[in-house]
Automatic annotation (TrEMBL):
It holds the Pfam family PMT_2. Residues 55-221 form the Glycosyltransferase RgtA/B/C/D-like domain. It is found in: Cell membrane. The keyword Glycosyltransferase applies. It comes from the Bacteria. One of its GO terms (molecular function) is glycosyltransferase activity. PANTHER family: MANNOSYLTRANSFERASE YKCB-RELATED (PTHR33908), MEMBRANE PROTEIN (PTHR33908:SF11). The keyword Repeat does not apply. This is Dolichyl-phosphate-mannose-protein mannosyltransferase. Keywords: Cell membrane, Glycosyltransferase, Membrane, Transferase, Transmembrane, Transmembrane helix. It is a multi-pass membrane protein. The chain crosses the membrane at residues 12-35, 77-95, 107-129, 166-191, 203-223, 260-279, 291-309, 315-333, 345-365. It comes from Pseudovibrio ascidiaceicola.
Length: 509
């Protein structure tokens, strides 16, 4: 961190060290970890360009499609590179946004804690998921609106309002929950007596119209597909099942612990304390109110929704926590000398812990290093299969003569998760579809042409897999005839057998 002798050169050096170190860690993760389930699904569906998709708006899929087309590669390291680049830009924007109101020292503290928060470091920082693009465009939109906080520049130009609408529209085109940050911006205007008259001018409506225009492909796609995407996301947030206290308490606990892990304790605890302090004290700056309004809507909404849902995910409020980092940076920058030493020690300890987890985690996911001394099979809790690439399936199917160049082989899986992992690994050599009640966007792909022979594959459980396989065959008997069981496909981790996929051949009835 920088000391009290703040100079532009020293600030630039510290920013470079932070960005370089974290970018190095992200590239390390990109090299060591295979694509996760959501990432594999993104890549597979990006092969089928569409105005939108069943579970997410299209921008991330379009980025993946463009990257694969430009590079000629679907390698995870290649596809993750644009997302790492976006995270670097987001970090610099966050610094600029914080330093503009609270000074360079606050900006450095903000990006330091931002960069070691696991969610922003890894998931939103490097993975092929919608969070990274959404965060980038929300930061751009928030930066474009900052002249409103200066009494001398509050009536910004129509061109700037259009740029705000474009940035916000691209955030919406990345992920639906960006709309809550827009609600936060509206809340800021409504709660400021001097800014409220802006709602009677054309600027905000120009921004809204541009954002709606950018988002219009998603609306059109939903309108022509029974509003499936909107309905799916709403159904995930609020369940129609009756209230079950143990289930909802368990979900609430998982949500809180997940946020603690994604942000790491110092960031979450200090950030929430600053929110409480803001409401309790009389000192309310315009900039503080601005960042708080952008932050609290997603945080409150998703931590209230957890009481109505059985399966809320802890990364949903992260777009809100993003805008607490300027306040966090400001607080750390104002600490007295004695407290700064403690803060630096806390940061160093947090960064060291995250670094150890990233390094050892990457090695373990790649090689099984930590549990290999325990023998085979690995413990049940050692579940890394869905963060691995299943390329062994491709090699096995080619060796057995079940995959050939030319017309893709029709292949079914029992769920969208196995479908995403297998389809990514087979790299277009199989035309994969998912069976079951939740096929996601697989269910919207063109139906397979009836074939005399199809393949059916999926992940086997750790134990009692023969019983599981017999149940699978029984469930398929009504749809397929002459089901033939093949030798399972071994998935290796670090050159050692780890898990297996069942493989069946079946004839259409």
């Amino acid at each position: 961190m920088i000391d009290r002798a703040v100079t532009p050169a020293r600030v630039a050096i510290v920013i470079f060290i932070i960005v370089f170190a974290v970018t190095l860690a992200r590239f390390y993760g990109a090299a060591m970890l295979g694509l996760g389930v959501d990432e594999s699904y993104m890549v597979v569906m990006a092969r089928h360009p569409s105005l939108s998709y069943f579970d997410h708006p299209p921008l991330t899929f379009w980025i993946v499609h463009a990257t694969a087309w430009l590079t000629g590669s679907e390698a995870g390291f290649v596809l993750r590179t644009p997302f790492i680049a976006m995270s670097v830009i987001s970090t610099l924007l966050l610094y600029q946004l914080t330093a503009r109101f609270y000074g360079a020292k606050a900006g450095v503290w903000a990006i330091a804690w931002f960069s070691i928060s696991p969610f922003f470091m890894l998931s939103a920082g490097s993975w092929v998921v919608p969070d990274g693009p959404m965060m980038l465009f929300l930061l751009i939109a928030a930066s474009l609106l900052t002249p409103l906080l200066n009494p001398n520049t509050r009536h910004i130009s129509d061109a700037r309002w259009s740029a705000v609408g474009l940035a916000f529209g691209l955030a919406l085109l990345s992920k639906y929950m960006a709309v809550l940050t827009g609600v936060g911006a509206l809340l800021f205007l409504l709660t400021d007596r001097e800014l409220r008259p802006l709602l009677r001018t054309r600027g905000p409506y120009i921004a809204s119209a541009v954002a709606l225009l950018v988002f219009s492909p998603v609306i059109w796609w939903n309108a022509t597909n029974g509003w499936q995407s909107f309905g799916f996301q709403l159904s995930r947030s609020v369940t129609s099942a009756g209230f079950d206290l143990p289930v909802h308490l368990l979900n609430t606990g998982r949500m809180l612990l997940g946020q603690l892990a994604y942000l790491q304790p110092v960031t979450l605890i200090v950030g929430l304390w600053l929110v409480v302090r803001f409401f309790r004290t009389g000192e309310k700056t315009v900039s503080g109110r601005y960042f708080l309004c952008l932050a609290i809507v997603p945080i409150i909404v998703f931590n209230v929704v957890v009481l109505l849902s059985r399966n809320t995910l802890p990364h949903w409020p992260m777009a809100g926590y993003l805008f607490l980092f300027p306040l966090l940076g400001s607080w750390f920058a104002k600490l007295k000398s004695s407290s700064v030493v403690l803060a630096k020690h806390a940061f160093a300890a947090s960064a060291a812990l995250i670094l150890i987890v990233v390094v050892l985690g990457g090695l373990h996911f790649k090689t099984g290093l930590l549990t290999r001394p325990l023998g085979f099979p690995p413990p049940r809790w050692d579940e890394t299969i869905r963060a691995m690439d299943w390329f062994d399936a491709k090699d096995a199917l080619i060796t057995r003569g079940l995959l050939q160049n030319g017309e893709p082989t029709p292949l079914y899986t029992l769920n969208w998760i196995d479908g995403a992992k297998i389809s990514y690994a087979l790299n277009g050599l199989a035309d994969v579809r998912a069976l079951g009640s939740d096929p996601r966007h697989f269910g919207l792909l063109p139906k397979l042409t009836p074939e005399s022979k199809v393949l059916i594959a999926g992940l086997l459980p750790y134990d009692d897999w023969e019983t599981r396989l017999n149940r699978v065959r029984a469930s398929l008997a009504g749809s397929f005839c002459e089901i033939t069981q093949h030798k399972p496909i071994t998935i290796n981790r670090g050159g050692v057998p780890y898990r297996a996929l069942f493989l069946l051949s079946a004839s259409s009835c």
